[in-house]
């Protein structure tokens, strides 16, 4: 009896042991097969919701709605993720929605077949470089947008603007540039586009301490970029992306301004063009040289600015001319003429607005305080973010 009982106990223990092993094995397999898998996060550019009451976001005149060209690189070795991907703006007016789309084929109108890309969590940082608006399909091969270099062809011409009697002429800024770094994955990538050009404007006011004349007017204003290498246009832009900013490049082909081409702002002696110096007595009432918005200029170093103008109303006891011939006073007309008075030498950086404030303290000898107010130039194309209406 005892022997049979022991065999029975042994058999029961052996079966239970086998069952236990089986249960353990099944549990282990189940844990492996059911372990959570990290979901792939698609890389997307910011979407935007349209307002039925506005059409600005879908206007073909907006550079952003014309799409942009983007390249993306990841990790310390800048492994390529996107090579000049064309991002198109897609508006669904029926559902009142829109998005930036880069996944597609040549049959759908893209420059080349483009695949969905996903964030690699082991490969941050991610670096994005972009050009807006997107060049035409047949022009894209002329652009280099690699992990180390941006090259824009000679067809991408940037040119300066001038203002005569309030009428602005010239000027060309065909592309805006963007670069941004992501240290972690984001639902949507936002690209802050910036100007490659500078914006320059001039304002004048009177700080004359003597008794103000009955009539006191300034006119025939002429402001020049007077240095011999003053640039009026540039092409074939190149930037070293491995060592500096996308905005710290150079133009290989530059046109220099000569003679009257150096004039940035000019007004004549018509009554409606004259600045009343009895009104322009402080910064808030400064004369804007008939150009309140400013002028596009090529970024450059060592710009020598000169200032010519006439003032009517000042009284001196006799006619006179300065030794350098740049100042002439006509007693009969109570007019003093100034020719090419040097205002200083300045550097112009990309995507920066310069407001030059010319404060005249005395007219003979001429005493001028010149200062530059610098402000970021952000009120343009804006950012590709969640609201194109900003």
Average residue pLDDT: 85
User: What class would the helix/strand composition place it in?
Assistant: mainly beta
Tell me the strand percentage band: 35-45%
Note the run of SSEs as H and E. Answer: HEEEEEEEEEEEEEEEEEEEEEEEE
Portion of residues in helices?
Answer: under 10%
User: Per the principal axes of the C-alpha atoms, what is the gross shape?
Assistant: elongated
Largest sheet: 13 strands, mixed
Describe this structure in words.
It is a single chain. 30% of the residues are buried. With 390 residues, the chain is mostly beta strands. The longest helix has 32 residues, at 2-33. It is built from one helix and 24 strands. The N and C termini lie far apart (93 Å). A hairpin with a 4-residue loop joins strand 2 (79-92) and strand 3. It has one helix at residues 2-33; strands spanning 68-74, 79-92, 97-101, 126-132, 144-145, 149-151, 158-164, 167-172, 176-182, 191-192, 198-206, 217-225, 231-240, 250-256, 263-266, 275-276, 295-297, 300-312, 320-321, 327-330, 335-348, 352-363, 366-376, 383-384. The strands form four sheets. Strands 5, 6, 7, 8, 12, 13, 14, 15, 16, 18, 19, 20 and 21 form a 13-stranded mixed β-sheet that branches.
